[in-house]
Amino acid sequence: NNKNVIAKARTQFDAYMGSMEAYLADKTYLVGEGVTLADLTVTMYLRDMYNMILDEAERTKYTNVTRWFTTIINQDEVIRVLGTTALCTKPAQFDAKLFAANH
Q1: Residue 11's pLDDT is what?
Q2: Nearest to 67 by CA among 32, 11, 23
Q3: Cβ neighbours around 102 below 10 Å, total
Q4: Which helix (H) or strand (E) holds 4?
Q5: Helix (H) or strand (E) holding 46
Q6: Cβ burial 60-96 (10 Å sphere, 16+ → b, else e)
Q7: How far apart are CA 36 and CA 69, in angstroms?
Q8: The pLDDT of residue 2
Q9: Side-chain half-sphere of 62: how many Cα atoms within 13 Å?
Q10: For every one of its 103 residues, what pLDDT tens digit does the chain have, with 9 covering 90 and above?
């Protein structure tokens, strides 16, 4: 059922973010001393989560990842391509009726 799928996904996401949190504890970038393709790729992977799911309370669990994410997403070159990225203020909620009406 949906609740089990969501719970499993959340567990996996939290494990991933926990690994990233530990890795970025003493790093500014994923590889080396500047922005690389690794930073850009992972940032794009996390962009929707930071935009729609990870509100301020959730972001406090991942201070190192959030620091890194905002560093990358606020690079002039990234803003020029993507525009600005707003951080989530209220997490998106699944609406079963709306989903059923559209599928």
Answers
A1: 95
A2: 23
A3: 7
A4: helix 2-23
A5: helix 37-52
A6: eebebbbebbebbbeeeebeeeeeebeebeeeeeeee
A7: 13
A8: 78
A9: 23
A10: 578 888 899 999 999 999 999 999 999 999 999 999 999 999 999 999 999 999 999 999 999 999 999 999 999 999 999 999 999 999 988 777 887 888 8
What is each CA distance from 39 to 28, 93, 98, in whole angstroms? 10, 28, 35
Give the per-residue pLDDT at 1: 58
pLDDT single digits (tens) 18-42: 999 999 999 999 999 999 999 999 9
What's the CA gap between 20 and 77, in Å, rounded?
23
DSSP symbol at 35: -
- Residue 38 — φ and ψ, nearest 5°? -60, -45
